[in-house]
Amino acid sequence: MSLPKTLADDVARNLVMVAQLLDEDPEAAYEYSRIALRLASRVAAVREAAGFASYATARYGEALAEFRATKRMTGSVDLWPVMADCERGMGRPERALAMAGAPEVQKLDKAGQVEMRLVAAGARQDMGQPEAAVVTLQGPELAANAMNPWTARLRYAYADALLAVDRKAEAREWFAKAAEADQSGSTDASDRLAELDGVEFVDALVEDPAESHDLAESVVPADAESEDDADDDEDDEDDVEITEAEVDITDEADPASFLDSPFKEPGTGTSKA
């Protein structure tokens, strides 16, 4: 669907803001998505952006409605995994499992199928079936040595599922593998691994108040004088010339700039598992 140029520009600016704010300020992204939706509700990209903004703010009912609208407009099944995850978010894991067995899954690419598996495993956990969650995540993608964008998350989910059934040694192994694959820091696999190993991190910048007090009492300021030194200095007082230097401090603010770039999809099938 084509829009008049002025309207198209307004919509594009709002979509850009949705993309930029989705991770750091999802509520603000949601507000921009509502503006875009009011301006052009018949544009598939607008409905999809509104769906992701709703999903990021846990408005799963709204997100599911927008994703369904996008699917009707485009005929694509790419959003199928995240639609199933919305069902989980609404407290309907059984519907998510039903979607995991639907014909649409066979039309997904490899990344989409992995996302669907993550959602299905999460649904099993929601239903109190942790052993089934472990089995759901097993497959050739998990055992492959190749690194893909979803490798770290799949390994992490598997490690978490193993931990849920008290298979700690195996869980540790897979958290280590997840940390190895996680170059972008998309998971906290390293922290989970350290937790299993009993490693406790201490912030070196945080001082113990008691230690700080003792240190303050034991250190003599560099400019402190004894009474004898003070008496000696009085005799030389007239020979000392004191000068003051004025320091000019200026602040230069870097003004924020608006990035007018095409909207990019935030990604599909982000599982809560």
Topology:
Layout: H1 5-21, H2 26-39, H3 44-56, H4 60-74, H5 80-89, H6 93-100, H7 110-126, H8 130-137, H9 140-143, H10 151-164, H11 168-181, H12 189-196, H13 209-218, H14 227-235
Question: Could you walk me through the main structural features you see in this protein, from its secondary elements to its overall organization?
Answer:
With 273 residues, the chain is an all-alpha fold. The protein has 14 helices and no strands. The protein is globular, with a radius of gyration of 29 Å. The relative contact order is 0.10. The C terminus is likely disordered.
* Biggest sheet record: none
User: What would you say the CATH architecture of the domain at 1-76 is?
Assistant: Alpha Horseshoe
Terminal CA distance = 36 Å
Q: Mean pLDDT, rounded to whole units?
A: 82
The rounded Rg comes to 29 Å
Count of helical regions: 14
Shape: globular
CATH topology of the domain at 1-76: Serine Threonine Protein Phosphatase 5, Tetratricopeptide repeat
